[in-house]
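Message: I would value a second opinion on how I read folds in token form. Give me a protein, with the fold worked out from its sequence. Write it directly below this note and I will take it from there.
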Amino acid sequence: MNELSFITKKLPLLVVSPFWFVTLLLFIWSISQMFSVGEQEGWVSVTGEVTSAEVKKSVLTEKNDSGRTINVVNFDPVIEYRYEVVKLEKVFSSTQYRTGMKQVYSRPADAEAFLREFPVGKKLTVYYDPDSPEDSVLEKATVESEIVLLIVATALFSGFSLFLIVLLKSQ
């Protein structure tokens, strides 16, 4: 087998394998997110207050397929809020909107639009873990959103797995 033949036969496998690995990680992560929904069931709700809201710009440098370095710019809406746990007589502060993935936008206008719902001084519901009151969120994970993530991850993982099996059998 000459070198070109070897490359053309192995190239699809080399291209698909990283996608399979990434979808495996997504699948595992989505299962862990399902467990976080159950953990939040016992969380307590209190009234909190927005203390600041701003868009933070982050730049991630990575290489594209052709090896060129590119900058990926994201805009993260950051909401800082405080809440009091009366039985501990303690005030806590957090920026955790929800568990799992952060709200991230590719356009600053979208991040700013999201933040318009959270003006400084706004009263809002905060959910905190009674066993670890410093852990809090503004939006609890829902079974529905996590099931959608799990279905997408399962479909991608299954599709790439099937494609890999077909590729391996054809070689």
Observations:
- The radius of gyration is 22 Å.
- DSSP finds three helices and five strands in the chain.
